[in-house]
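Example record used in the benchmark description.
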Amino acid sequence: MDDLEYKKQILDPKSASFCGAKWYNATIWLGSGMTTSCHHPLPHKIDLEAIKTNPSAIHNTVQKKAERKQMQCGDRPKGCEYCWKIEDINRDNISDRVYKSKIFSNEALDEAHKSDPNTDWNLKTLEIAFDRTCNFACTYCNPAFSSTWANNIKRQGPYTDMVTDGRNHFTHSHESAEPYKKDETNPYVEAFYKWWETDLHKSLDELRITGGEPMMSPNLWRLLDWIETQGDKMNPNMTLAINSNLGAKQSIIDRFKTKLKKFDNFELYTSCEATFGQAEYIRDGIVYGDWHSNFLHMMVDKVPRAIHNMCTINALCLESLPELLEKMVWFKSASKVYGPEVNFTLNILRFPSFQSPLVLPDELRNKFKLDLVKFLNSNEKHLEHMEINQTQRLIDYLDVVKTPHAGAAEQSKLQKDFKAFYSQYDKRQGKDFEKTFPIIGEWYRGI
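Model output (structure tokens):
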């Protein structure tokens, strides 16, 4: 059954807004005690009192239970706007609520739909970040998710002269994202381990670890040690997925590969959405050649069973995104020799709005849209159905959608913040926007 038929036959009869992720999936930032149902809605605080007696409350929050009831009734939770934007294009585009529901059985979805919304649920898929320790400071990230970003703000002070949403990402070091120091016990982390050791290791179909950079977190190695010694207790079909920027020291990457090569169900998620100097500008800290080499060696050494590249689609990446996608097609062909499956996803950035692809003027958006059409026409036979859908929805997004999200500032203000941010970024990081992005740079110069 293709994705559109799945939506019509499985999800729509339940309700016009139903999504299995609200019950069975969570993204949880244990360092700061924040949670959400997937990575699209804004996170909310976990009740510190509730987890003392119910560790599953790191997922089963009052807010999520209210949103489950909305979905059972066909109402749209406001925080799930990412999917409503895609669906409201009205071109039968497939939103992520289809992908995030399709991974669960029809029986599980029926059970969730008919349930008391106040019921506590064991997760089937979970993404966790233990802390924000990271060696990169990507332009679209911020101090809440990167210790390198936090240190940059501490050393050089806040970014200034911006007025649109997302500006506060770059005005302070977000100490609330790391309330517990390295020598203190974090109650959110301990609640996870209590839930993990009782129920989660049996109920989860997939555990995905993100960051920061997980290789730099002691808690990743703590969990891998548990799996190494007690993995026979786990759901034998559980997938262990780990996000990594593949930019750690070689000795750490080698240790990582040694540890994970013993685990049959390991999948690697990495991130890049541009090539060479443009990738290094967007993802400060990456050395594109090293990323490419580490990606290839993960394949050659047959460490993961699959490698997924997550492209964060922002205004800057569109110049070289087709070239990066061509590289992904090359990796996909190499996987026929080396074994690990390779694919990509295109995740459209909405916050901060001034970095959205929609900040660009119509003529540039149209040019980049046509570049993607050319890529898709040339490579469709090499792509998975999901990759084709995601490329087509980005093409349609650039063609139709006018605002990143409800309440976003008008484009002129977003463009002024775009210029203000990147001009300061250049001075702080010793970079050169106009030289790095010759196509966008000509327009940028005139803002």
